[in-house]
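To the wet lab folks,

You asked to see what we're planning to order before we commit. Fair enough. Below is the target structure as tokens, and below that is the sequence we designed to fit it. If anything looks off to you, flag it before the synthesis order goes out.
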């Protein structure tokens, strides 16, 4: 019985997701461009949360910056966002693409950090080895000097 009820509600959910709740706006932002905008928005919001004072002091408004960069206005963005949000699978796809791009950037930055840490570690080890060699030479000279 539970299986039938679950199946019934699942079918209703699928049918309701296919129904257009919001009509497509005339100036709809293409899916690819919307992905780019939302990606930049996520990055800028993360930067803003980490450096809020810098953003405030410089007078940078994230949304105004994005509107100018992509040649859109707030109405076009809002209507497009609402339209894509009314199609859950499409909206999910956009956000999955945003997440993938952010993950690629994160992996790249982590790899750079690891390479930098490795090179610092190697330089430190080399320096340490050089200092040990110098100390060993001094120790050997001290051992040789008293016997002469």
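Sequence we intend to order:
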């Amino acid at each position: 019985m539970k299986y039938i009820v679950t199946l019934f509600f699942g079918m209703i959910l699928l049918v309701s997701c296919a129904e257009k709740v919001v009509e497509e706006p005339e100036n709809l932002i293409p899916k690819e461009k919307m992905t780019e905008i939302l990606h930049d928005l996520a990055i800028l919001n993360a930067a803003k949360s980490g450096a809020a004072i810098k953003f405030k002091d410089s007078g940078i408004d994230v949304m105004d910056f994005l509107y100018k960069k992509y040649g859109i206005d707030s109405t076009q963005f809002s209507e497009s966002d609402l339209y894509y949000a009314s199609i859950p699978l499409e909206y999910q796809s956009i956000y999955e693409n945003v997440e993938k791009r952010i993950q690629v950037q994160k992996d790249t930055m982590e790899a750079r950090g690891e390479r930098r840490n490795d090179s610092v570690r190697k330089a430190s080890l080399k320096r340490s080895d050089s200092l040990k060699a110098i100390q060993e030479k001094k120790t050997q000279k001290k051992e040789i000097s008293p016997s002469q």
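Structural context that might help your review: The longest helix spans residues 88-147. The two ends are 101 Å apart (CA to CA).

Thanks,
Computational group
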